[in-house]
User: Fold these one by one.
Assistant:
Number 1:
Amino acid sequence: MESAVISVMDSLINSEEVKGVLIADEHGLCLGAKGTVNPSSAGFISAIATHAKSLHNDSNIQAPIIKIETEKLTILIQNNGNYTIAVFK
């Protein structure tokens, strides 16, 4: 599993304009972080994604992608069941 997490993070961090990537498990534990990401934010990011996912009851709908924008940064967050991915641009 660890090599899969590293592979996903490497792939995303090498994408254009990506400044950081964070992957957390379903409990908010940081599984990996690269770039300008604070690993201690994993719990908050996981909670945001979990709450957004609970807004609809239809399991056939893809989990929502949350977009947080500031003047300097955009964060894209999505929960995919057992893990949450956040991409910082």
Number 2:
Amino acid sequence: MTATMPKNIYDPLDSHTLTVNTKLLGYLDDTTWFSNSLDNLTAHLEIADDFYNLANTKLLTNDKQLLTHTTHPFVSDKI
């Protein structure tokens, strides 16, 4: 994105140009991911992480919750 602004309104050739390079602008809040298995969910989140790295986007990855309808608990750090 490039913007050129005049420094002096009486001299149109006297200007300042500002250039900003960005891949993604956005605000993400309360994203919900659905999957039919933990393996598929892990694969989808890895793809999303790759995209966010490519787009140079920072996420709060420690602020997450896993909700499930199963009655047996499991222990995993993969997600």
Number 3:
Amino acid sequence: MTTATRQEVLSLYRSIFRLARKWQAASGQMEDTMEEKQYILNEARTLFRKNKNLTDTDLIKQCIDECTARIEIGLHYQIPYPRPIHLPPMGLTPLRGRGLRTQEKLRKLSKPVYLMSHDEVS
């Protein structure tokens, strides 16, 4: 990891913690605010620890892009949770047939950047 990339990652990590400190739930309830703050902190710690040993610059860049997108979406919609995508199980139509493997591949390719670190839940 280059020095510039390391600084960018550390800057994102600090900005997430600053965001969590200032976070206010859209409902205005103190319980919701505390729960959402805790979610932000836990999610950041988990994902940063999971990816701390990455050495491939493309994967690091993808993780940085995902982090930035999730911060922007969270601020825009006032929710810290990732926005789910809704695709029916066999709803993607490939040109070469409707096989299960093809559908799984297309679903993986259609996953938005802000959900790359999350497993798909049906």
